[in-house]
Write a structure and sequence with these properties.
Helix content is about 50%, strand content about 0%. With about 90 residues, it is mainly alpha-helical. The protein has one domain (about 5-80). Helix 2 packs across helix 3 (about 60-80). The protein starts with 6 loop residues before the first helix and ends in a 10-residue tail after the last helix.
Length: about 90
């Protein structure tokens, strides 16, 4: 999980995902209005015995997965904000 990494690395990974057309927000995968309870249910399923998440060299909890999903969504939404353009006529 990248949530504890340098902001520059997070931005680099985000930009790579955008550049190749990967979804970068929950809305991009049809989950714009997903609740915390729904995300936690998915996180719990991803942490079930036998899931590949347990291949990580550290313990990952459903709460950590939920928090990482929200954090990644926030990064994606921040990156998608339109840049305000101001036209100035002199």
């Amino acid at each position: 999980m990248l949530t504890d990494r340098a902001p520059e690395l997070i931005e680099e990974v985000y930009q790579f995902c955008e550049d190749i057309g990967l979804p970068t927000t929950l809305a991009d995968i049809g989950l714009a209005g997903v609740s915390d309870d729904e995300l936690l249910a998915v996180a719990r399923a991803s942490c079930q015995t036998g899931e590949t998440i347990h291949n990580e060299p550290f313990t990952i909890t459903p709460e950590a997965v939920q928090a990482a999903l929200r954090a990644a969504d926030a990064v994606g939404r921040r990156g998608k904000r339109p840049i305000l353009q101001v036209n100035v006529s002199l």
